[in-house]
Amino acid sequence: MRFDQSQHMKLGQHMKLAPRMIQSMEILQLALPALEERIEQELESNIALETFEPGDDREEAEERRAEADAEAREAEKPMQVDEKHGEEDFARLDNFETEHAEAIEDEYASPSNGLPSRFEEHGSFSRTRMAGERDAKMDAMANTAARGESLVEQLLEQWALSDVGDELREAGKLLISHVDEDGYIRTDLTTIADTAPTGPDGYRPTAELLTRALLAVQMFLEPPGVGARDVRECLLLQVDAIEEMEPASAQALSVVRTLIDKHLDDLIHNRIPKIAAKTGLSLDEIKAAIEQMRRLSLKPARQLIRESEPSLVPDAIVEYDDDQDRYLAYLTDGRLPNLRLNREYARLAADRALPKGDREFIRTNITNAQWLIEAVEQRRQTLLRVIGVVLDAQRDFFDLGPQAIRPLPMTQVADQLGIHVATVSRAVAGKYLQTPRGIFPLRKFFTGGTQTESGEDVSWEAIKAAMREVVDSEDRSRPLSDEAIAAELKKRGLDIARRTVAKYRDQLEIPPARLRKQF
After folding, report:
1. Do 471 and 428 contact (CB within 8 A), yes or no?
2. What fold, for 448-519?
3. What is the tens place of the pLDDT at every residue in 214-273?
4. How many CB atoms lie within 10 A of CB 126?
5. What is the DSSP string of 328-366?
6. pTM greater than the 0.85 cutoff
7. Residues 309, 313, 315, CA angle at the centre, nearest 5°?
8. Contact between 272 and 283 (Cβ < 8 Å)
């Protein structure tokens, strides 16, 4: 084996992203709530970054602060009492007390007397404290909803009120710990018994004890159906509860019970005639029973879980301008704080009297603050430019609806704006538009498409909208197959394959024809 050392020259091109560019791309990709959080984090960690309110007269405030500091230094000047200057110093003290007595009295006067100007400059904080008003932050904390109890905690509270023996109570607690978020106990009782922790006395519940505890759990816990081991048992428990509350409906519920207990699989697959042939029931009786079943829930425990829907914050709002006959957009970033560099730290960064390490630390923070401010502004400009292209290209969508949306590749927008296609992709990622037709993901307006038989460009989103319209207008007693839907779309000039119809139908969550059929 031989090792050689040599030198070579090689010409090549490499692209390296500067930290500033990386941060700019990250900021561009953030949705509005995430951007707010990012800015808050930077405000907490960066001493050179601060917020301001429009209209703030900063210089005047600094002058007032300087005057107040000068007064404080004058007041704290040590007294020199001697024969030569004693009278002068005591006279200065007497004048100070006379000049400031009224101001001191005003500062600690009742709220009805008003506030001195040097408290007013600090805004609502001083007014709240001096006027005895409620603290807005404390009110917000007091009005914030407490963490909701978990499903298991709520079920255990119900179980604690049940009238059962100690042995059965402990077994019930064990079963409740295995209830999933839908309300089912999907683990086999034998497995639960085998994996149960051993008590201090070496006792472990048996499968037979758990079976008896399960009956008690299903009887005592609300809503009905909680503790079921499968869908059939869950629905039957709910039927039992309804029959107990409404004895008069026992006859109608008997048909529901039969369908659930004996023909659930046929119900799931919409084989109504087959059920009628097996049971001797008429189609009207079966349909009436199915209508009764709409009162039942496949996920009963969801009623106990408060699920807060994530709030959807649009990044821009689109409105129609009658005067210009065009759609205009404006960003909703007014909720973002106004950022600027702290002037005091900017002055300290150039102060050579400061230790070198301190100056470098301040300069680093100033640089990071400048990058963030510029990245936020660049995000704003890029997003507005991209949305502007969308408004021009998708005018028919805003005028006529989803069926009029046109193909709009990101490459086309990038070429039009003179930016990279990756920049367009980051600009639309996770962003939403509030339009007169509702709130839509910004990415929805960037779609490929095909051509109609007349040569007109049509997007895939428009084809989906047309397919939805075809299905909504079909005769439910004779629903259209995928091939028939493709034929109907072809009559509208949209020539797509049957397998494409099946794919889009799944995306639109439209059931197949046999499940859409009504008898």
Report:
1. no
2. Arc Repressor Mutant, subunit A (1.10.10)
3. 999 999 999 999 999 999 999 999 999 998 888 877 788 889 999 999 999 998 888 989
4. 15
5. EEEE-GGGSPEEEE-HHHHHHHT-TTS-HHHHHHHHHHH
6. no
7. 155
8. yes
